[in-house]
Amino acid sequence: MLFSTIIAILCLSVVNGQTTLDKNGVGFNNGYYYSFWKDSGDATFTLNAGGRYASNWTTRTNNWVGGKGWNPGSSSRTVHYSGYFGINANANSYLSLYGWTTNPLIEYYVVESYGSYNPASCAGGTDEGSFNSGGATYQVRKCRRTNQPSIVGTQSFDQYFSVRTPKLGFGQVSGSVNFADHVRYWASRGLPLGKHDYQIIATEGYQSSGFSDITVS
């Protein structure tokens, strides 16, 4: 699953104006907030101009997530993304609008594309129906994490998933997420958000390999 670190430990290289991280880090770059986290392995995260980032990872990394966006996030933002999501159908990976709130502590995902594992099938969760937004149907599921890492340390918290159906394919991708639609639907199901922390278009890999090159606006 996707988690965030509180303390950033940076190891980076700068080539042709691009900054590549191979250790966990958060901060601001070219007007956008970024977050990069991994629990092991060789995943790297490159900060490019504006809202663009690139990532590479192999199966030597167990779990990682990174992306660019905003801090704080917003319940009313429409987020646009485009670029390349380079995985195969057997890879466990997501491309999603991803973020956190506090009070209540919530980890949320609007999953636009994924590989072998549909996050709306998380064990022990509850199905919360479906709704339409932007010409797609989103399946909603709430899951519970117990004593797991979060933006405020080890905590128990809920996760909200809106999973696009049909999902986007792999390779060239583009789209928009009207986050207000998701917030309204979640609220109608008794799934409130709290005070926004960060909000990014994220790539995640779990025991897989791939690369992405994504621009956020």
Automatic annotation (TrEMBL):
Active site positions: 107, 204
Recorded metabolic or biological pathway in which this protein acts: Glycan degradation; xylan degradation
Native species: Phaedon cochleariae (Mustard beetle)
Name of protein: endo-1,4-beta-xylanase
Positions of the GH11 domain: 20-217
Pfam family for this entry, one: Glyco_hydro_11
EC number: 3.2.1.8
Keywords from the UniProt entry: Carbohydrate metabolism, Glycosidase, Hydrolase, Polysaccharide degradation, Signal, Xylan degradation
Gene field: gh11-2
GO annotation terms (biological process): xylan catabolic process
Keyword ATP-binding among record annotations: no
